[in-house]
Amino acid sequence: MTAQVSSSATQDVETPHSEILAEVRNHIGHLTLNRPGGLNAINLDMVRALQHHLDTWSTDPAIKAVVLRGAGEKAFCAGGDIRSLYDSYHSQGTLHYTFFEEEYALDLTLHHYPKPLVALMDGFVLGGGMGLVQGADFRIVTERSKLAMPEVGIGYFPDVGGSYFLTRTPGQLGTYLGVSGVQIRASDALYCGLADHFIESSRLPDFDAALSTLKWTLSPADDLKTLIESLTDSSPSAPPLATLRPLIDDVFSAPTVSAIVDRLRAVTLPEHRDWATATADLLLTRSPLAMAVTLEMLRRGRELPLEQCFELELHLDRQWFDRGDLMEGVRALIIDKDKTPHWNPPSLNELDAAHVASFFSDFKPTGA
Questions:
Q1: Which of 196, 156, 153, 189 is nearest to 174 (CA)?
Q2: By its UniProt entry, which InterPro entries does this protein fall under (predicted)?
C-alpha cells in the first residue's frame, strides 16, 4: 500500500519497505506500523518516520486528529527491535544509545501532542508498543489485546515511560506488572487504567469507516469521544486483577524482590495459592538485577513527573548495556535461543543492595 499524505513535507520521509504507512482521510492522520511479520516491532527508522509525521501534522490546520495502529491481526507493536541493539553494542556502534534517546523523545511527543490521539491496541502491545499508546487520549483495546511490560524476562527494566504510567495504576498493580512482566488482557487493562475503551475486533472496520465520514461539529476530541462511545462494548469479562488486588497490594509493597517472593510463598488461602506459587516461580526465572532495579525505579517514579521519569530511564539505559543483564537475555532468548540465561548475579540471594543503589546514585533530574 502506497502512503497517502497531506503535504509534500510529509512525503519526504519513507522507511524501508514502507514500515510506516501514512495516510490522511477526513482530516485525520492515520499512522500504521507496517511490519506484521515481525509483530510490528519498532526500529530507529520507524521512530524517525513517526516523529516526522507527527511533527508535520501537529502544525497542519487541516489535521484534526491522529490514529495509531499496527498492520495485521496479531499485534499493534510487540516492542523494540532489540536484535539491532544487541548487534550495535557488540560492534561498538552507537545505535543502542541513539535509539532510546529518540524513542523516548517520540513517546514524550505523544504524551504532549496538541491534537487528539487514538491508539488501536489490537493484539500484542508490549514494551515499546506501550510507550506509543500510553500518551494517547483514546486507548482502545479488543478481545485480542495482550498488554505487558515484559522487559525483566530479557534482563532489562520497563522503560518508555513505564516508571510513570505503571506507577499511576491503582495500588501496587503497576509494581506487579513491572517486576513480573506478565501479560494482561482487555478487562485488566481497563481496570488498571492502561486502556480507556473496549471494542470488539470485528467492529474495527466499522470504526475505521465511521472515521472517514465523521462530521466535525464540536471539538475534535468531543466528536471522537461520541463516535468511540457509540461503538464501545462492555468488557468481555470481569477483571481477574480485581479479585487479586488486595493480595497484590500486600505482596508487592514488600521492600525487596526477595521479600516479595517470601510473601508469595507464604500465601495459604486456597483460592490464591496457585496464583501465588506460579508468580513466585515466575519471578525466579527473571533477571534478579533487572527486577531489583525495576522495583527501585518504580518506587522513585511514583514521585516524579513524566519528563523526569524519562530522564531516569535514560540514566539507567546509559549504564545498562555494560552493567546490566540485557545482552545476556537477548543472547539466550533471541540469538542462541537456548533459553538458559546466565544472570549476574544468578539468584536473588546473591543481590548486593549497594550495587542496585549504584545505578541511581548519580541521577540528577532536570529542575531538581
A1: 189
A2: ClpP/crotonase-like_dom_sf, ECH_dom, HIBYL-CoA-H
